[in-house]
């Protein structure tokens, strides 16, 4: 697959890291296909992370993801899903490699700066959660 979906999470946007993160994304060879500054209500955040329903961190995740605006992105590159997850680093920034986006900008496991889809199928589903077909040139 050559596309993935990403989100710059509320803390990273609020703290003024959007430009630096987008620069790293483009610098790594990803083309921005679609981009939108928007906002998730707690309910919409819960839908986005429905796979985590019932887990101990689910309510906290919904709350953190709806604190302030996010930037939604569809990104294009050969091997996009796998290469993007390498660029962002491990979910827990304590385990993220040096030079990854999460190592540089994550504050904690729950406030880990960015999201990246974990499969081609989820990239498609998550992209369509935020963008209409007309917005995905
Ligand atoms: P993302 O989906 O945001 O790219 P991921 O695929 O690396 O992250 P998931 O397992 O899908 O990780 O978890 C989604 C998000 O929920 C994580 O990015 C993290 O912010 C939060 N999270 C995951 N596991 C925990 C946990 N054990 N405690 C607290 N928060 C967690």
UniProtKB/TrEMBL annotation:
Keywords from the named record: ATP-binding, Kinase, Nucleotide-binding, Phosphoprotein, Transferase
Enumerate the active-site residues.
115 (pros-phosphohistidine intermediate)
- Which one Pfam family would you cite for this protein? NDK
User: Ranges for the Nucleoside diphosphate kinase-like domain?
Assistant: 1-135
Instruction: Return the InterPro entries for the record.
Output: NDK-like_dom, NDK-like_dom_sf, Nucleoside_diP_kinase
| Gene Ontology terms: biological process | CTP biosynthetic process; GTP biosynthetic process; UTP biosynthetic process
* Record flagged with keyword ATP-binding: yes
Q: Which Gene3D superfamilies match?
A: Nucleoside diphosphate kinase-like domain
Q: Which family does it belong to?
A: Belongs to the NDK family.
Protein name as it appears in the record: Nucleoside diphosphate kinase
Q: Which organism is it from?
A: Cytophaga hutchinsonii (strain ATCC 33406 / DSM 1761 / CIP 103989 / NBRC 15051 / NCIMB 9469 / D465)
Gene behind this chain? ndk
């Amino acid at each position: 697959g050559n596309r993935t979906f990403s989100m710059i999470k509320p803390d990273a946007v609020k703290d003024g890291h959007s430009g630096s993160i987008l620069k790293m994304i483009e610098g790594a060879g990803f083309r921005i296909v679609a981009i939108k500054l928007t906002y998730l209500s707690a309910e919409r955040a819960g839908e986005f992370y429905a796979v985590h329903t019932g887990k101990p961190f689910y309510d906290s995740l919904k709350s953190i993801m709806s604190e302030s605006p996010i930037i939604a992105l569809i990104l294009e590159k050969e091997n996009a899903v796998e290469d993007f997850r390498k660029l962002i680093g491990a979910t827990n920034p304590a385990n993220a490699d040096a030079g990854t986006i999460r190592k540089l900008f994550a504050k904690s496991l729950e406030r880990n700066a960015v999201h990246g889809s974990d499969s081609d199928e989820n990239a498609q589903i998550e992209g369509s959660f935020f963008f209409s077909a007309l917005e995905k040139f």
